[in-house]
Amino acid sequence: MSGPHTVLLFQEWTLQPDQEPDAEPVTYSMQCAVCEEASTTSEDFADGQSWVFRHAGRNPSHLTYREIIIRPWRAWMRQH
C-alpha cells in the first residue's frame, strides 16, 4: 500500500514592471499624513502635487504627505 506523496518542481521566476501595450497605467496620488485625506488617483503626478498645495493652504498645520504610486508588475516563469 502506498501513501500520498508530493512532487516539487522548482522554477526560476522573473519579475519586472509591466510595460506591455495592454498594461495598466502607472498612477499617482498624495495623502496627508496628518488627516489621511487623499488626492484623486491620476496618471499625472502633478495632479497630486497640486492637491497638496490646495490642502496645505486650507490646513496650514498639515505639513507631511505620502506619495502613493501604483505600478503594475508582471511575473513569469523562465524557460530553460
Structure description:
The protein starts with 12 loop residues before the first strand and ends with a strand. It has a two-stranded antiparallel sheet. It has 80 residues and is α+β, with helices and mostly antiparallel strands. The protein has one helix and four strands, in the order E-E-H-E-E. The radius of gyration is 22 Å and the shape is elongated. It has one helix at 45-58; strands at 13-17, 27-32, 65-70, 73-77.
Short description:
18% of the residues lie in helices and 28% in strands. It is α+β, with helices and mostly antiparallel strands and 80 residues long.
Which features would summarize this protein structure in a list?
80 residues; alpha+beta; two-stranded antiparallel ribbon; 1 helix; elongated
Shape estimate = elongated
N-to-C span:
36 Å
Major sheet summary line: 2 strands, antiparallel
User: How many beta strands in the DSSP annotation?
Assistant: 4
Q: Fraction of residues in helices?
A: 10-25%
Q: Which strand order do you get reading across the main beta sheet? A: 1-4
What order do the SSEs take from the amino end to the carboxyl end, as H and E? EEHEE
Computed Rg = 22 Å
- Give the uncertain stretches in residue-range form: none
Q: How is the secondary structure organized here?
A:
Elements (H helix, E strand, L loop, with lengths): L12 E5 L9 E6 L12 H14 L6 E6 L2 E5 L3
Antiparallel strand pairs: 1-4, 2-3
